[in-house]
User: Fold this.
Amino acid sequence: MHDAVTPAKPAALPALWLVLLAAAGAFALTMGVRQTMGLYLSPLNTATQLGLGSISLAFAFGQLWWGLTQPFAGAVADRIGAGRTVLLGVALVALGTIITPLMTSTVGLILAVGVLAAGGAGMAGPSVLMGAVTRLVPPERRGLATGVVNAGGSFGQFAMAPIAVGLTAAVGWAASMQWLGVIVLLALPAAWVLRGNARALAAQAGGAAGAAALSAREAIAQALATPSYRYLSAGFFVCGFHVAFLATHLPGVIAACGLPQEVGGWALAMIGLFNIVGSLLMGWAVGRWRMKSLLAWVYATRAAAVLLFLLLPKTTAVVLVFSAVMGVSFLSTVPPTAGLVAKMFGPANMAMLFGIVMLAHQVGGFLGAFLGGYVFQATGSYDWVWYVDIVLAVGAALVNLPIREAPPRLRAAQTA
Assistant:
């Protein structure tokens, strides 16, 4: 693949619709496969007899590794090109997913699910995709564009969950998972569309607010020294806890309520469907309201929805309505979070800096996935995880309020 950057002139950039189709499609396939893995938790446990705690550890490691790869993948994409990074990532997702049913030990599952599939999804994940979109889309359209890309990930979950359920019924869980690994290869053409790197383009254009002059180390140091960036990362940590717990354990929560197994698949599909709505609405809202306020509202909504779910009877209708509400807020935090990173630090190091925020997200995801299985195995109930989730969501709503959206250098000039 030729990933070189051509001179920065409008005719050299792909059409907006093609950029959005490539990024949203790649996200749909990688996220769709990852977010349906919870459906295979019980069959894996039955087949391997490893115990829910051990299997949850493998899935939790995947959450953490997905986050760990993103700052590095973002830094690579910023410098040598998003296309090559996406190409390798998609190949690793396919490989890890295909070999997972062959693993019979905890170490094997960690390798397949946690290192290969999750690492590949991180390389072809939101930090690289959002960075590429930020580079290729005009500033005035970035909010809506990131919302569309985020909606792609949601559509992937909506589409993949029923496909996984149907394939499992037709060919068994192992072949079903392997077919998902083959399907994800449909994301490979996106690598060509998203080729190029942000730093070279920014240098040709003269940079933005001096961002192009910063090395990776300088950009990271500036970001970590910015309180608003730390607040943003803390809130995204909570988002990761919430999202990973639901994606991994919601089918188990539903089964523990005595509802049919297929309701778990419907619930995941509802989350994906309504997250499309939430992502598009958030992409539209980013250009009209303060992004920090939108984030605070999303986290507060999650806390209220979980509390109501705990109080209401667990019927199929309640589960599906709860899943719809969770879907609206599920990944709608991504457009304003990515938008704040781009607004504060510019596009030159966007993928890397957003990748660091995603790392915080996935540390939370590790805890959400692992504690879900550990607490259920210890107590026979998920209630304590829900209680922690409510407290964390309230904290995330509050920690976003003091964020200042102006770039650090502009704030320094204003206060000098």
About this structure: The radius of gyration is 20 Å. DSSP finds 19 helices and no strands in the chain. The domain at 13-406 is CATH 1.20.1250.20 (Growth Hormone; Chain: A;). Residues 1-12, 201-212, 410-416 have pLDDT under 50 and may be disordered.
